[in-house]
């Protein structure tokens, strides 16, 4: 007879859907199981001309299945071109630790011009006394086509003082029977290659909880973040958590903490015990505790509009953020953009506008929820049977732009987040400033209503994200509970645009802006947080 805990674990695979291949259902290993460690190649999905490109080799669970790496061959070719560059490396490495990573440097001369390049990584290795060969990874029942990386002529579109980062991602401290992330040092290396300047490491609270009063796993995470930070002085790492807490219906939802130094437990949906799935702490209590203990910590509703599938509701007691939950005065942001443009993003965006019109000073953030996933997302689709590959929720694909005063460091980043000097984007950038009597009011500021205000709009894109298509400026009215859109005329066919509007008749509430760009294949956007008008 199959134990109930085994059935429970099989449900979790369906729930989380990440590519851990050593899961069994009783004595049945399934079609994905291998007596090998997971072996995965990965690299950024974008970078820039003149940069060497990091290609990472990740190996997990070699402590259970020791492996000898023999040699690797790497091929780089511009898409739709037959000529290839090749790198061969003789490794001869015996790997027996739980986590192993190795970085290969692909020289910038392999990527001489802007465009899409294909990268194929092949590895010869020995495991269980047998010689093996893989391409891209050793997963079964999944495609192994070349990675695609876009090499850009230009950095990510930006403006003076603005920096891009990913504020929701998971490292290898998120590690259980069904999912795992990448090591923090390699995440930073990938992010730097992409053009990001900061990251928040937000592993699950139930993965960070080791069941001891001292919770040494949290201390180990903080220590690892500091070790990596010391080696990357031009980059900023924030500690954080994705805490499981109880909503108004006593169901588990996820709350992001950014910059916290204390650990906040939450194991309700962590499957620590069979059907022990009640929330560890109610959301209001969690948010109050954070305000008292970690005043500099930023709080955000993680993917607030997402509705969990029925299996998660039944097994893990997962729910969604209710309106009352989202009104909590101790909540700083809604993280509405989570690596993909789906109906949940659109619903959260519409809900945010309604909240603003009802005088809630809530900001918006972007992240990706990436668990590694630099170039592609490899996940389980049908437990034990089928995997699938896609290109959503990749590190840095959707990102937050933050306006920093002075030097880019942890304190200034947290201060800018506290002031809500933030835009969210998957491509271009737009900023809005209000000038009155020579004083400049930035995004996140408050200004008193005047008869005429000078509004400065500035937008940038690049060939990677296409020419600027549309720019919208909105005045949200508290009294009318609606947004008024001001016509903004812009020059066609440009990547950069700047204009000052002298506007009269603004209504008490807020101003915010949107920009849209497009290339031949895709559409892109940027949304600002408001400037409040009192």
Structure summarized in a few sentences:
The protein has helices spanning 4-16, 184-194, 205-208, 216-230, 283-293, 310-316, 323-326, 343-357, 410-418, and strands spanning 38-42, 46-48, 53-60, 67-78, 85-95, 99-106, 115-127, 130-135, 147-152, 162-170, 198-204, 236-246, 252-258, 298-302, 333-338, 363-367, 370-371, 377-382, 386-390, 399-403, 422-425, 429-436, 439-441, 446-447, 452-460, 467-477, 482-486, 496-504, 509-518, 523-528, 531-533. The protein is of the alpha+beta class and 534 residues long. The strands form 5 sheets. It has a 16-stranded mixed beta sheet that branches.
List keywords for this structure.
Immunoglobulin-like, 534 residues, 6-stranded mixed β-sheet, 16-stranded mixed β-sheet, disordered N terminus, 17% helix, alpha+beta
């Amino acid at each position: 007879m199959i134990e109930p805990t085994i059935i429970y674990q099989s449900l979790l695979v369906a729930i989380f859907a990440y590519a851990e291949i050593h899961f069994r259902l009783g004595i049945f290993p399934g079609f994905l199981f291998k007596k090998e460690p997971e072996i995965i190649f990965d690299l950024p999905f974008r970078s820039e001309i003149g940069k060497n490109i990091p290609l990472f080799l990740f190996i997990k669970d070699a402590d259970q299945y020791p492996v000898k790496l023999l040699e690797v061959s790497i091929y780089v070719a511009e898409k739709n071109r037959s000529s290839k560059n090749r790198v061969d490396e003789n490794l001869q490495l015996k790997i027996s630790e739980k986590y192993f990573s190795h970085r290969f440097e692909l020289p910038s001369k392999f990527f001489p011009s802007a465009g899409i390049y294909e990268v194929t990584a092949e590895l010869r290795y020995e495991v269980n006394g047998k010689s093996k060969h893989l391409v891209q990874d050793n997963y079964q029942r999944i495609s192994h086509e070349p990675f695609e990386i876009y090499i850009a002529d230009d950095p990510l579109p930006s403006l003076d003082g603005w920096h891009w980062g990913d504020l929701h991602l998971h490292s290898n401290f998120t590690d259980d029977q069904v999912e795992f992330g990448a090591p923090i040092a390699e995440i930073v290396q990938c992010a730097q290659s992409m053009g990001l300047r900061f990251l928040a490491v937000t592993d699950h609270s139930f993965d960070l909880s080791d069941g001891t009063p001292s919770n040494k796993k949290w201390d180990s995470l903080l220590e690892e973040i500091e070790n990596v930070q010391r080696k990357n002085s031009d980059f900023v790492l924030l500690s954080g958590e994705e805490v499981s807490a109880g909503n108004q219906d006593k169901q588990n939802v996820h709350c992001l903490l950014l910059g916290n130094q204390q650990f906040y437990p939450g194991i309700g949906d962590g499957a620590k015990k069979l059907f022990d799935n009640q929330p560890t702490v109610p959301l209001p209590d969690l948010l109050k505790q954070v305000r008292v203990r970690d005043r500099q910590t930023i709080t955000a509703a993680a993917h607030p509009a997402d509705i969990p599938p029925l299996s998660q509701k039944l097994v893990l007691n997962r729910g969604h953020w209710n309106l009352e939950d989202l009104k909590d005065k101790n909540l700083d942001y809604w993280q509405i953009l989570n690596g993909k443009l789906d109906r949940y993003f659109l619903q959260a965006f519409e809900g945010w506008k309604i909240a603003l019109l009802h005088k809630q000073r809530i900001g918006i953030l972007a992240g990706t929820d990436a668990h590694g996933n630099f170039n592609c997302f490899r996940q389980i689709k049908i437990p034990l049977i089928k995997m699938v590959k896609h290109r959503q929720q990749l590190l840095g694909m959707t990102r937050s732009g933050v306006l920093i005063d002075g030097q880019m460091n942890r304190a200034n980043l947290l201060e800018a987040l506290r002031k809500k000097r933030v835009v969210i984007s998957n491509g271009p950038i737009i900023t809005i400033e209000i000038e009155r009597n020579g004083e400049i009011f930035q995004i996140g500021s408050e200004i008193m209503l005047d008869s005429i205000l000078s509004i400065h709009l500035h937008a940038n894109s690049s060939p990677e994200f296409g020419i600027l298509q549309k720019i919208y400026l909105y005045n949200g009215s508290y009294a009318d509970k609606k947004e008024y859109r001001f016509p903004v005329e812009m020059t066609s066919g440009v990547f950069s645009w700047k204009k000052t509007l002298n506007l009269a008749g603004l209504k008490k509430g807020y101003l915010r802006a949107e920009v849209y760009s497009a290339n031949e294949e895709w559409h892109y956007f940027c949304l600002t947080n408001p400037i409040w008008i009192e």
